[in-house]
Amino acid sequence: MDKEQILKVNELFYKALGTRDLELMKTLWILDERAGCVHPGWTILRSWENIYQSWANIFDPEDQVDINLTKINININNNRAWLTCVQEMVYLKRDLSMFNLSQSTNIFEKIGDKWLMVLHHASPIPVNNYKVVDNSLQ
Q1: How many other β-carbons are positioned within 10 Å of the β-carbon of residue 127?
Q2: How do 45-46 and 63-77 pair as beta strands?
Q3: What is the C-alpha separation between 88 and 31, in angstroms, rounded?
Q4: Cα 138–66–101 angle (5° rounding)?
Q5: What single-letter DSSP state applies at residue 128?
Q6: Does residue 133 surpass a pLDDT of 60?
Q7: For the CA atoms of 12, 17, 22, 24, what is the dihedral angle to 10 degrees?
Q8: By the 8 A CB rule, do 93 and 63 touch?
Q9: For residues 111 and 118, is the Cβ–Cβ distance under 8 A?
Q10: Within 13 Å of residue 11, how many CA atoms lie on the same side as its CB?
Q11: Is the Cα dihedral 22, 24, 25, 26 positive or negative?
Protein backbone atom coordinates (compact mmCIF):
# COMPACT_ATOMS: atom_id res chain seq x y z
CA MET A 1 0.00 0.00 0.00
CA ASP A 2 2.74 2.50 0.93
CA LYS A 3 4.66 1.74 -2.26
CA GLU A 4 1.62 2.50 -4.43
CA GLN A 5 0.96 5.75 -2.51
CA ILE A 6 4.57 6.87 -2.95
CA LEU A 7 4.46 6.07 -6.67
CA LYS A 8 1.24 8.11 -6.94
CA VAL A 9 2.73 11.15 -5.15
CA ASN A 10 5.83 10.87 -7.36
CA GLU A 11 3.63 10.64 -10.47
CA LEU A 12 1.67 13.71 -9.36
CA PHE A 13 4.94 15.59 -8.73
CA TYR A 14 6.05 14.99 -12.31
CA LYS A 15 2.56 15.85 -13.57
CA ALA A 16 2.76 19.19 -11.71
CA LEU A 17 6.25 19.74 -13.12
CA GLY A 18 5.21 18.92 -16.68
CA THR A 19 1.98 20.92 -16.63
CA ARG A 20 3.49 23.82 -14.66
CA ASP A 21 0.83 23.44 -11.96
CA LEU A 22 1.96 25.29 -8.81
CA GLU A 23 -1.23 24.51 -6.90
CA LEU A 24 -0.84 20.77 -7.44
CA MET A 25 2.87 21.04 -6.57
CA LYS A 26 1.99 22.67 -3.24
CA THR A 27 -0.24 19.73 -2.22
CA LEU A 28 2.65 17.25 -2.58
CA TRP A 29 5.31 18.85 -0.35
CA ILE A 30 6.02 19.27 3.34
CA LEU A 31 5.38 22.99 3.67
CA ASP A 32 8.08 23.93 6.16
CA GLU A 33 11.84 24.51 6.54
CA ARG A 34 12.61 20.77 6.20
CA ALA A 35 11.77 20.89 2.50
CA GLY A 36 14.74 20.88 0.12
CA CYS A 37 15.15 21.01 -3.63
CA VAL A 38 18.15 20.80 -5.96
CA HIS A 39 17.30 21.69 -9.54
CA PRO A 40 19.84 20.35 -12.11
CA GLY A 41 22.96 22.50 -11.82
CA TRP A 42 21.70 24.51 -8.81
CA THR A 43 22.69 24.52 -5.16
CA ILE A 44 20.14 23.32 -2.62
CA LEU A 45 17.10 25.44 -1.83
CA ARG A 46 15.79 25.12 1.72
CA SER A 47 12.23 25.75 2.96
CA TRP A 48 8.99 25.40 1.08
CA GLU A 49 8.75 29.17 0.46
CA ASN A 50 12.07 29.21 -1.42
CA ILE A 51 11.19 26.08 -3.37
CA TYR A 52 7.78 27.46 -4.32
CA GLN A 53 9.38 30.70 -5.51
CA SER A 54 11.87 28.74 -7.63
CA TRP A 55 9.05 26.83 -9.35
CA ALA A 56 7.17 30.10 -9.88
CA ASN A 57 10.29 31.58 -11.54
CA ILE A 58 11.02 28.49 -13.65
CA PHE A 59 7.48 27.73 -14.83
CA ASP A 60 6.54 29.42 -18.06
CA PRO A 61 2.88 28.97 -19.01
CA GLU A 62 3.94 28.74 -22.66
CA ASP A 63 6.15 25.72 -21.93
CA GLN A 64 5.12 22.18 -22.62
CA VAL A 65 7.24 19.52 -20.92
CA ASP A 66 6.87 15.85 -21.70
CA ILE A 67 8.39 13.73 -18.93
CA ASN A 68 9.19 10.03 -19.02
CA LEU A 69 10.57 8.23 -15.96
CA THR A 70 12.78 5.16 -16.17
CA LYS A 71 14.80 3.09 -13.71
CA ILE A 72 12.39 3.73 -10.83
CA ASN A 73 13.48 2.24 -7.51
CA ILE A 74 11.75 2.70 -4.12
CA ASN A 75 13.02 2.04 -0.62
CA ILE A 76 10.80 2.42 2.45
CA ASN A 77 11.92 2.57 6.08
CA ASN A 78 9.06 3.20 8.51
CA ASN A 79 7.71 6.70 7.76
CA ARG A 80 10.51 7.66 5.34
CA ALA A 81 10.98 6.63 1.73
CA TRP A 82 13.33 7.45 -1.09
CA LEU A 83 12.71 6.97 -4.76
CA THR A 84 15.36 7.16 -7.45
CA CYS A 85 14.66 7.46 -11.16
CA VAL A 86 15.91 8.91 -14.40
CA GLN A 87 13.85 11.81 -15.76
CA GLU A 88 13.77 12.14 -19.53
CA MET A 89 12.36 15.59 -20.25
CA VAL A 90 11.53 17.15 -23.60
CA TYR A 91 10.93 20.90 -23.33
CA LEU A 92 8.91 22.50 -26.11
CA LYS A 93 9.13 26.25 -25.69
CA ARG A 94 7.76 28.29 -28.53
CA ASP A 95 9.97 27.30 -31.50
CA LEU A 96 12.76 25.71 -29.44
CA SER A 97 12.86 22.08 -28.35
CA MET A 98 15.33 20.76 -25.76
CA PHE A 99 16.01 17.30 -24.31
CA ASN A 100 17.27 16.84 -20.75
CA LEU A 101 18.26 13.77 -18.76
CA SER A 102 18.56 13.87 -14.98
CA GLN A 103 19.11 11.33 -12.23
CA SER A 104 16.62 12.15 -9.49
CA THR A 105 16.28 11.26 -5.84
CA ASN A 106 12.96 12.08 -4.20
CA ILE A 107 12.59 11.68 -0.44
CA PHE A 108 9.17 11.36 1.16
CA GLU A 109 7.88 11.41 4.73
CA LYS A 110 4.62 9.87 5.88
CA ILE A 111 2.56 12.34 7.90
CA GLY A 112 -0.55 10.60 9.24
CA ASP A 113 -1.71 8.53 6.28
CA LYS A 114 -0.26 10.83 3.59
CA TRP A 115 3.18 10.68 1.93
CA LEU A 116 4.70 14.12 1.26
CA MET A 117 7.87 15.13 -0.58
CA VAL A 118 10.67 16.39 1.65
CA LEU A 119 13.46 16.57 -0.94
CA HIS A 120 13.77 16.55 -4.72
CA HIS A 121 17.32 16.36 -6.07
CA ALA A 122 17.95 16.21 -9.82
CA SER A 123 21.44 15.93 -11.28
CA PRO A 124 22.05 16.25 -15.01
CA ILE A 125 23.26 13.23 -16.97
CA PRO A 126 25.22 13.93 -20.16
CA VAL A 127 23.16 12.42 -22.98
CA ASN A 128 26.25 10.86 -24.60
CA ASN A 129 26.78 8.82 -21.39
CA TYR A 130 23.36 7.21 -21.65
CA LYS A 131 22.76 3.96 -23.56
CA VAL A 132 19.89 3.42 -25.98
CA VAL A 133 18.42 -0.08 -25.64
CA ASP A 134 15.52 -1.30 -27.79
CA ASN A 135 14.80 2.24 -29.07
CA SER A 136 14.31 3.54 -25.53
CA LEU A 137 16.74 5.18 -23.18
CA GLN A 138 18.12 2.85 -20.49
Answers
A1: 12
A2: unpaired
A3: 27
A4: 40
A5: G
A6: no
A7: -10
A8: yes
A9: no
A10: 6
A11: positive
Domains within the chain, CATH numbers bracketed: 2-131 (3.10.450.50)
Cα torsion 85, 122, 108, 57 to 10°: value is -130
Q: Coil, strand, or helix at residue 48?
A: helix
- Specify the DSSP element, H or E, that contains 88: strand 80-93
Per-residue confidence (pLDDT) for residue 56, from 0 to 100: 92
Q: What is the pLDDT of residues 24-44, one digit of tens each?
A: 999 999 999 999 999 988 999
CB–CB of 79/110 below 8 Å? yes
Q: 88 Cβ partners below 8 Å, 6+ apart?
A: 67, 68, 69, 70, 99, 100, 101, 137
Contact criterion met (CB below 8 Å) for 38 and 120? yes
Instruction: Report residue 60: phi and psi, to 5°.
Output: -115, 120
Residue 23, classified by CB atoms within 10 Å of its CB into exposed (0-12), middle (13-18) or buried (19+), is: exposed
